[in-house]
């Protein structure tokens, strides 16, 4: 649209983006000839894919395992937050502990009988 002569404001309205975003994209296109984003300059990963799978597998096998136990078992110097992030990426979230133990069917039956006996 810009090469056809449309204004930045009109292009922004058509693609539902801000004028600043359209302007930045156009400047990058004229400067570099591409619209692709540059790779990030973030920190490098401390674990390999294999170690990531091992972290997730340990959490699946034993849901009560702690992050420090997983870290010691994997053998890589990583912080517990990294383990939590890997588990979140695998859609594994921490579960709240029970406030009370769940009742067995036998306990439920006994409680129901006790309540029915005292309902009148």
TrEMBL record:
<dbReference type="Pfam" id="PF01498">
    <property type="entry name" value="HTH_Tnp_Tc3_2"/>
</dbReference>
<dbReference type="GO" id="GO:0003677">
    <property type="term" value="F:DNA binding"/>
</dbReference>
<dbReference type="GO" id="GO:0015074">
    <property type="term" value="P:DNA integration"/>
</dbReference>
<feature type="domain" description="Transposase Tc1-like">
    <location>
        <begin position="52"/>
        <end position="117"/>
    </location>
</feature>
<dbReference type="InterPro" id="IPR002492">
    <property type="entry name" value="Transposase_Tc1-like"/>
</dbReference>
<dbReference type="GO" id="GO:0006313">
    <property type="term" value="P:DNA transposition"/>
</dbReference>
<protein>
    <submittedName>
        <fullName>HTH_Tnp_Tc3_2 domain-containing protein</fullName>
    </submittedName>
</protein>
